[in-house]
Write a structure and sequence with these properties.
binds flavin mononucleotide; five-stranded mixed β-sheet; 18 helices; ten-stranded antiparallel β-sheet; binds manganese (II) ion
Length: about 650
């Protein structure tokens, strides 16, 4: 007889599997009813991505399109899979863990072998050694990924979606890009999207801060740089490509550790790179140092189209694949989306490692609504005055945390995932300007379109901890709040569409900016006149609110566009995105004369060079094509999805 306990055991062992390849994972999803197959033709152009997005939003299953229709109307020979990681549970299954923090705990275990303990209980050391061994990749002569060699390599035969209507073309959205350090030969595997320019040309979007860009800089002008793009493979191999690993840990070793078996690697046919042998596709080729091409636009993680930029071009020399390959892809855009689950898993997996290096960090949360890089909430120890600020500064320089725009530091017992608690901390603990620390001219994410310059912006640390008893400021009087009637008075101000109190010292108002960027289209040209009018309007609204008697104790004033509906059920989530993805600290933060309060301008800015700091082109928001969306909605309703 099978008892409940048995069932639990079976499901635990199921979820903790090591995956041989993508197929094994897909079969498991099928058997647990988490996969649907679509056997009628579906367009790679917009339709497949729209379906995947809708499924993610509903916490729905993974999907395989068996007949993906290519741009030329033909049906691709290869199935397209999407939404493989679209729920927290599915991501955990893909990683073979019950909670991603197990991954970090294992890594920390490897980083500090407890010598004393190992001597007393040798078997604990044995397990570590075993895990250590599973990290070394294993070279094999022929990989499953090379079972079939495409006669005339042609990228346009692969089912590669165009996910948003204004995208510059189809993009590989889950690529595992392999390069090697020209000096040491150490391989790197990073996920950098690839734009399909033609049969044999692919744009490689490795941002300046990433390992492949580092390799490219060291190649030397006279040499070609070998590159391979792998698709598919065991899910932990894919996860490894997005993981923010330290410089000295290779993704291949990490993939072995994650998947609890050594990663098999095999040599490419037309260059000397070694690639994971069990992936579904390998696209081999090279870049020519110095050669670039305009890449983008592309609807990206922040919910905006990425601005066009110059990026290297890969020339394809071979395409090989498994006998039964599947092409996995994703769609990114206004959060929440599938990559949100991957990002959350990264956060959970790497928190223990971060805490091992930064011992004051008690907890850390990167809300997916802010695209991960725009906000981190950090619970820090605060044993001595200003310790939390020290913690935040340390994190700003830790690996890919360098991309962060804002950190809110909170007390060590603060629940970092609780938005109400966060508002309370900002409301009660933050004195302006003393608790706002602004760092000008720092590293920015290449995707940060609100930054005044590409890759350079200002950073903000908000110290929302309580002061220690021995802090020089510890005898300051308590701060007061505002009456609720403030929102009513503020709504009456000309130009204010809606006003709402968020907390006793926090007010948010929405407005409509004449000639301002609309979500549907990007704004390419500077327009000094309308930009000046925008600045004036914001200043007027701000000053009139500040002048209200009921605003005497207002410390935070948020101003944003009225495409945010403050009456919507999910308005706070939406507001997080709206506030953090539209503002630049040094440009859009305004203090009053006594500097006791701040206005946070998060209206989409009009491009301009004449303001206090430049506003670059302002991109459109990722929105589905209405016709495609209607068709997809109708189809999903018919199918009961
Ligand atoms: C779906 C997805 C797409 C991504 N696209 C890019 C990209 O186009 N360019 C980039 O530099 N990073 C991109 N990233 C982030 C990198 O994969 C990530 O920073 C990784 O750790 C880089 O590896 P590296 O440190 O070896 O360079 C993407 C991540 C995900 C999850
Ligand atoms: Mn790397």
């Amino acid at each position: 007889m099978i008892t409940n306990e048995h069932i639990q055991l079976i499901s635990v062992s199921n979820s903790l599997m090591a995956w041989r390849d993508l197929r094994e994972y897909l079969l498991n999803l099928r058997d647990s009813n988490e996969l649907i197959r679509i056997s009628h033709p579906v367009d790679c152009y917009l339709e497949a991505g729209c379906i995947a997005d809708k499924l993610v939003k509903k916490g729905g299953p993974a999907i395989i399109f068996d007949q993906p229709r290519l741009a030329n109307g033909e049906i691709s020979k290869y199935p397209l899979a999407m939404n493989l990681f679209g729920t927290r549970e599915r991501t955990n299954k893909a990683l073979g863990v019950e909670n991603p923090k197990e991954i970090g705990e294992t890594m920390v275990g490897l980083m500090k072998p407890d010598i004393g303990g190992i001597l007393k209980k040798p078997w604990t050391g044995l397990e570590l050694a075993m895990q250590g061994m599973s990290m070394a990749p294993k070279k094999v002569r022929k990989g499953a990924c090379q079972a079939v060699v495409m006669k005339d390599p042609d990228m346009t035969k692969l089912p590669i979606p165009t996910t948003w209507p204004m995208d510059g073309g189809p993009f590989i959205t889950l690529p595992l890009v392999v390069t090697k350090d020209p000096k040491t030969g150490q391989h790197n595997m990073g996920m950098y999207r690839g734009q399909i320019f033609g049969k044999k040309e692919i744009g490689l979007h490795w941002q300046a801060h990433k390992h492949a860009a580092d390799h490219a800089d060291d190649v030397g002008k006279e040499n070609r740089m070998p590159v391979a793009i792998c698709l598919g493979g065991p899910p932990p191999v894919m996860f490894s490509a997005i993981s923010p690993l330290p410089d000295n840990l290779s993704e291949y070793e990490f993939a072995g550790l994650l998947n609890k078996r050594r990663l098999r690697i095999t040599k490419c046919l037309t260059n000397d790179l070694w690639v994971p042998a069990e992936v579904d596709f390998v696209i081999e080729g090279y870049t020519i140092p110095g050669e670039t091409r305009t890449e983008g636009p592309f609807g990206d993680h922040f919910g905006y189209y990425c601005l066009e930029e110059e990026y290297p071009v890969m020339h394809v020399t071979a395409i090989t694949h498994r006998k039964d390959p599947t092409v996995p892809m994703t769609i990114v855009g206004v959060p929440p989306m599938e990559d949100g689950y991957l990002g959350e898993a990264i956060g959970d997996a790497f928190r223990p490692v971060l805490q091992f290096q930064h011992r004051d960090v008690k907890d850390l949360f990167l809300p997916l609504e802010t695209g991960f890089h725009n906000l981190a909430i950090v619970a820090s120890k605060q044993r001595y005055p200003r310790q939390a600020r020290k913690t935040a500064l340390g994190l700003m320089g830790a690996g890919q945390m360098m991309f962060l725009k804002s950190i809110i530091a909170v007390n060590e017992d603060h629940n970092v995932k609780d938005l109400e608690a966060l508002l309370k901390a900002l409301d009660y603990n933050v004195r302006i300007p003393e608790d706002l620390i602004i760092l000008d001219g720092m590293v920015a994410d290449s995707l940060a379109h609100a930054s005044p310059w590409q890759n350079v912006h200002s950073k903000l640390i908000i110290d929302a901890t309580t002061l220690t008893d021995n802090d020089p400021r510890s005898n300051e009087p308590k701060m007061m709040g505002c009456p609720d009637s403030l929102s009513i008075s503020a709504s009456g101000i000309e130009g204010v569409t809606k006003a709402k109190m968020m907390a006793s010292s926090m007010l948010v108002v929405t407005t409509n900016i004449d000639g301002g960027p609309r979500p549907e289209e990007s704004m390419e040209e500077v327009n000094e006149e309308t930009a000046a009018a925008q600045r004036e309007k914001i200043a007027r609204i701000r000053d009139e609110i500040w002048a209200l008697e009921s605003a005497k104790n207002l410390r935070w004033l948020f101003i944003t566009d009225d495409d945010a509906d403050l009456d919507d059920e999910h308005w706070r989530r939406r507001l997080l995105w709206q506030l953090f993805c539209r503002f630049e600290v040094s440009r859009d933060f305004h203090f009053d004369e006594q500097r006791k309060r701040v206005a946070w301008d998060a209206t989409a800015p009009i491009p301009s060079n004449e303001g206090p700091l430049p506003v670059r082109r302002w991109p459109a928001v990722t929105l589905h094509d209405p016709e495609v969306e209607e068709k997809v909605d109708a189809w999903m309703e018919r199918e009961g999805l």
